[in-house]
């Protein structure tokens, strides 16, 4: 089975940087995804990591260490619209199932 | 916008009733996955359909069933509704055998069971 852990809530100031950690224990691993979800809306894809290292996409970066079962999502130059839940999800080896963490609710304050 | 659509947007049912939710996948995608998301939690995998066959199932009872049609759209059926079935139901489409098989989500159907 899969077990995904991420903090429940984080608060940060507009313009700052926030790092959301995700740890996982899996019986199989075929990639880690980060999604953003605004209240009442669908999750939207942010990033994908399957190899160790950092993937950068504009203000968002995601890091993976497979040996440590660890990932983080880094949000830079925070904007008010970044207030949302951020979901970490691991894909199983067979590739047909995403297991999600409970989500980290990020509140950006002026 | 992901190109994944779901209907209806909202639905209210009573215990014991049956419900059918619908999903149209993004153009070019051949796989649909369904998830249940309770308030304040992450989505939970229900099952996936690929080429009209079930291709993996999560820890949900048999009263949760599905279909995929030749145009890759899909239905989720839930029989004998229970109060705990109240949730946001999300479908996600993807292209199996693509480079990342990234799943793109529709807007969801909010089901309330009274």
Task: Summarize the topology.
The complex is a heterodimer of chains A (110) and B (114).
Chain A: E1 2-5, E2 9-13, E3 18-26, E4 32-37, E5 44-49, E6 53-57, E7 60-65, E8 70-75, E9 84-91, E10 98-100, E11 104-109
Parallel strand pairs in A: 2-11
Antiparallel strand pairs in A: 1-3, 3-8, 4-5, 4-9, 6-7, 7-8, 9-10, 9-11
Chain B: E1 5-7, E2 10-13, E3 19-24, E4 31-37, E5 44-50, E6 53-57, E7 64-68, E8 74-78, E9 87-94, E10 104-105, E11 109-113
Describe this structure in words.
The complex is a heterodimer of chains A (about 110) and B (about 110). Chain A is an all-beta fold and about 110 residues long. Chain A contains no helices and eleven strands. Chain A is about 0% helix and about 60% strand. The N and C termini of chain A lie far apart (about 40 Å). Chain B has strands spanning about 5, 10-15, 20-25, 30-35, 45-50, 55, 65-70, 75-80, 85-95, 105, 110-114. Chain B is mostly beta strands. The interface of A and B includes residues 42 and 48 of A.
Count the E strands of chain B.
11
Mean pLDDT of chain A, rounded to whole units? 94
Note the gap between the termini of chain B.
Answer: 32 Å
Question: What is the helix fraction of residues of chain A, given as a range?
Answer: under 10%
Shape of chain A: globular
How many distinct helices of chain A?
Answer: 0
Assembly category: heterodimer
Most extensive interface: A-B, 24 and 28 residues
Q: Which stretches of chain B of 5+ consecutive residues score pLDDT under 50?
A: none
Largest sheet of chain A: 6 strands, mixed
Which residue ranges of chain A are poorly predicted, with pLDDT under 50 across at least 5 consecutive positions?
Answer: none
In short:
The complex is a heterodimer of chains A (110) and B (114). Chain A has no helices and 11 strands.
Any key phrases for this structure?
heterodimer, A: 110 residues, mainly beta, 6-stranded mixed β-sheet, 5-stranded antiparallel β-sheet, 58% strand, globular, B: 114 residues, 7-stranded mixed β-sheet, 4-stranded antiparallel β-sheet, 0% helix
